[in-house]
Amino acid sequence: MNERYDVVVIGGGAAGLSGALALSRARRSVLVVDAGEQRNTPAGHVHNYLGREGTPPAELLAIGRREIESYGAKVVTGTVTRLTRGGGGFGVALADGRHVHGRRLLVTTGLTDELPDIPGLAGRWGRDVLHCPYCHGWEVRDRAVGVIATGPMAVHAAQLWRQWSADVTLFPHTLGDLPDDTWEALAARGIAVVTGEVTGVEADGDRLTGVRLADGTLVPREAVVVQTRLRARADLLGPLGLETAERRVGDAVVGTYVPAEPTGATAVPGVYVAGNVADPLGQVIGSAAAGLTAAGAINADLIAEEIRVAVAARKGVEGIAPHVAEMFTEAYWEDRYAGRSALWSGRPNPHLVTDTEDLTPGEALDVGCGEGGDAIWLARRGWRVTGADISPTALERAAAHAAAAGDDVAARTTWVHADALSWTPEPRRYDLVSAQFVHVPTGLREALFARLADAVAPGGTLLIGGHHPSDVGVVPRPDVPELFFTGEEIAASLKPDEWEVQAAEARPRTVAHPETGQRVTIHDAVLRARRR
Ligand SMILES: Cc1cc2nc3c(=O)[nH]c(=O)nc-3n(C[C@H](O)[C@H](O)[C@H](O)COP(=O)(O)OP(=O)(O)OC[C@H]3O[C@@H](n4cnc5c(N)ncnc54)[C@H](O)[C@@H]3O)c2cc1C
């Protein structure tokens, strides 16, 4: 299985299946990968699910699977073990060695209920060891219920369960002394309090019999309530840059979750979350609703990408993979700048510094100027600089940085909104034309560099720098080899009678590897040439 999907849904519980239903009905290709350990699996029935009240969890999911498969979505059993970026989306690796690719990810992996370490609890979890009165309260109504204080919400839980049964006992266990007003409120509602450490929960055959205390007493109970720690199943997302946050109820930390917008969009573009992984207190119907909401947001996101690609295609970027083509659109760059207050360091590129120090300042053009780091450095040295970029946001920031650098720098800089793929700067005008790390695919690149060379005045300098193809595999780079070039290639395109090539080389540079932090040597392609 080495397939590509519009959306890979990781986790086939209510949230994932509901998202997959809406996405497959929106004519998206969808794969659901599910490990089959839904949170409520131990429970006999799903309650509070309108229209399907009391359905066994497995039956509800089987219905959901049939529904999504009828619209063409695919469901496989498996565990996703690794997520990587690439190919205009994400690589998804399964434990059994299968790999798939998704343009977007809907992560609906749910949460793990971490049970308190009390003997006897785990084996009866979901049957008569309970956590949620809305899920199980009706089933144990009027029965003998014990609430063991295993978390900060224990007193609240005892009061809540009292709604379903008049026979509720609170075991403060290791909670410590209860404040007077808490005692009073418990007594007022007829809730018994039995102090002493709990050492176990006991059963006779398939029937819970009671709560054992350290002094040997067995307090007869028919159902026991505990608070679990709600831990988001989100380890997969760490390598993509997504961490969990603490979920609080009031001051009490009850677990973790993956922060996201109400749409399910996370801080990592293209990754959406829904259900218990994002909202640990959510129930089945709410998780299904969240999956639907995220599906709508994902579809809108994909449509936005498809519009960008179509626009790029109209501009002549046909024949290039959609995720590459969209990199040459204003919308793509606007999105990138919008996501962060500063995309670049603000420092000038090293080759610009070394290769222009000996030049007499004149008129310069910086193509793909971004937030203006290079252009402002040149302006400080006395150059009159035109910075050109496709992103209005980048240009606004560049102008603001120039203004902050002082009136003389601001007066020497001009910012031009231009798409380098179609823009022709004035021929023979500039004493320096610089393009640093402007990567466009083969075919378009030759035409772009030829236009930049044309803009160099007699005696002026063309300075082009970029990532060298040999870096691929050394450090993470977009998996689009045709974007990278060598200085030698550009030199070969310059007519020797018009140009003196001063440098056409792969210059080594040592950087920290972004993932391992180890020092590695990479190379920049550099072309410096002087028009005769
Ligand atoms: C005992 C119990 C009873 C409950 N009863 C009710 C009830 O009656 N009514 C109600 O509304 N709510 C109930 N709930 C809450 C309900 O279980 C959750 O709200 C609901 O399951 C959340 O749905 P979800 O899709 O977010 O996650 P889940 O249903 O937990 O589904 C997550 C899925 O993701 C899969 N997964 C995780 N990691 C991976 C991976 N790496 N690769 C592939 N798959 C993965 C899991 O195996 C699982 O199948 C109960 C909870 C418990 C614990």
UniProtKB/TrEMBL annotation:
Transmembrane segments: none annotated. Keywords: Flavoprotein, Oxidoreductase. Residues 5-283 form the FAD/NAD(P)-binding domain. It catalyses: [thioredoxin]-dithiol + NADP(+) = [thioredoxin]-disulfide + NADPH + H(+). Signal peptide: none annotated. Pfam families: Methyltransf_25, Pyr_redox_2. InterPro entries: FAD/NAD-bd_sf, FAD/NAD-binding_dom, Ferredoxin-NADP_redctase_2, Methyltransf_25, SAM-dependent_MTases_sf. The keyword Oxidoreductase applies. Residues 365-460 form the Methyltransferase domain. This is NAD(P)/FAD-dependent oxidoreductase.
